[in-house]
Write a structure and sequence with these properties.
The complex is a heterodimer of chains A (252) and B (317). With 252 residues, chain A is of the alpha/beta class. Chain A has 7 helices and 13 strands. Chain A has one domain: Rossmann fold (3-Layer(aba) Sandwich). The chains are: A alpha/beta (252), B alpha/beta (317). The structure holds flavin-adenine dinucleotide.
Amino acid sequence: MKVLVTVKPVADPNTPPAAWIAAQQGKPTGEVNHVANYFDLIAVEQAIRLKDVGVDDICIVSITGDDKMAQVRSAIAMGANRAILIDPEGKALEWHQIAAALKHVVEQEQPAFVLMGKQATDDDASQVGSILAGMLGWPQATFVSEMEFNADRTRVKVGRETDEGVEVLDVKLPAVITCDLRLNEPRYATLPNLIKSKKAPLERFKFSELGIAADPQVTVEGFALPAGRSGECRMVKDADELVGVLKEMKLV
Amino acid sequence: MKILVVAEMQLGKLKPSNGAAVRFAQDLAAKTGGSFDIVLIGHGLADLAAGLNKYGAGALHVIDAPRFENYLPGSFCAAVVGLVQAEGYTAVIGGEATTSRDIFPRIAGALGAGMCKGVSAIVDAGGGVAYQRAVFSGMALRTERIHTPIHVLTVDPTAVGEPAEGPAGAVKAFAAPGGDDDSVKFVERRRAESGRPDLAVAERVVGAGRGIKSADYLETIGTLADKLGAAIGSTRAVVDAGWLPNEFQVGQTGKAIAPKLYLAIGISGAVQHSAGIRGAKTIVAINKDPEAPIFKIADVGIVADLFDVVPKLIEKI
Ligand SMILES: Cc1cc2nc3c(=O)[nH]c(=O)nc-3n(C[C@H](O)[C@H](O)[C@H](O)COP(=O)(O)OP(=O)(O)OC[C@H]3O[C@@H](n4cnc5c(N)ncnc54)[C@H](O)[C@@H]3O)c2cc1C
């Protein structure tokens, strides 16, 4: 079985927000390190663990410039076979364009299913998986924390993490599956595998070659820092004082 | 704009996040000189529809068929898209929740429409409107503008108020396109019943972190919660450990909540957790580490051993 797994390089979640905003606005800042989106690493790990149910071709797809190859390599080095890279040519692509580019790859590769992270930890949108599934006319299963294939690998039973508990669905393949935290714990790429990953076959496209509308449906107009909370934390010394303060604030 | 609010159900009841979606639709209609309707999709909806029809919507569409008994993304998406196309809506709005997070991008894709997820405010933008939403774990706000004729939005319930009441609209049955489809089948839902208030909308929440050391201590946390009439929430660490099920997780990738009181017990205050409690009115933190980041966002704090403080709180409240 062939599986496509998407990987997005994102700013390290510990980046100070002002530095992140500056980088988003194209201002040079030395403060932003990039990592592979954690949810995508869960997706890569899942693909690797599915080798014992017949996954034998794990292809990473990333829409990113060459400057973030290290993050893509770290994902390949976990145990993927190869990668397809789409160069956005310096453009900030929005979710619909990303999904359209992925659709292009899916049509070329015809995988048994697509595994993705449930959201990217920079823009927190969790849109691309569902858009892609809709574009392909495929079933989708988002926020998945359990997967179990049937005997002939035509369907997969998934547990989805929802506001109302774990929802179990039985999904026909091919499908788009987005991964949640409890699915697995991603392994670290070892140094030998990182070195080996440099030899993994890479196929490259330019976004402008794919015939996708260049005009974004959604544009970013600006950034702001959220209003801070009240400020000082009022420290109390013991439980008695705490109860007193809570009563004073009419909270209990 | 001609707006459609997609109301959601939760375990056979109307979901509280519908209120924020209706309120946002009211505001957007006022701002753009438009109107809004509501759609409810499910099976056996007669009694529920009335609960939605009190906000001044022009129409309440009801899509009621056995195949909508359980939420499934493909068929629900086709139903909403069919209605949007039949009625010519130019905005589709829902409350941010796991269901809308699943289905709204699919709807947007099918309509060829741009979408913004979890919007908190409408912003004027050169004769049109743009939307503000939290990104990067809630540490930044971003303004996004949609350029397609149809706007698809989910609304952050912790940032938007209650809807205004208004006259009832005409109730209309809509026969949704599509038929039975076995590509996705609902199997079951696994859920722990707690009898406590709904975490998403509770006025008071007791948050339990890894500091509680074991699942056994949740009994004591529960006693405190019950004294306060509070819901229990938790960090990812507690859910990963299997002490509580996933629906208790608060944060960037769990629920965002806005209670009057959030009592953070043995919680370090990682950015991913803080993302979910920014809307809380008062945050009270109990942590033995004076350097814990939770004290940076808390309003009241105590540096102490939780195993000492929690029993005293139970006794004194
Ligand atoms: C992609 C991603 C998404 C994530 N999403 C979320 C999310 O949605 N929600 C979330 O919560 N986390 C999320 N996390 C995890 C987050 O980064 C933190 O690891 C997690 O919130 C920590 O949980 P905690 O505060 O319970 O545990 P810890 O960080 O271990 O903190 C425990 C705290 O308890 C205190 N403590 C210990 N013993 C006592 C005692 N006896 N008395 C008083 N205090 C005590 C300690 O001082 C410490 O501050 C995410 C992480 C990633 C990578």
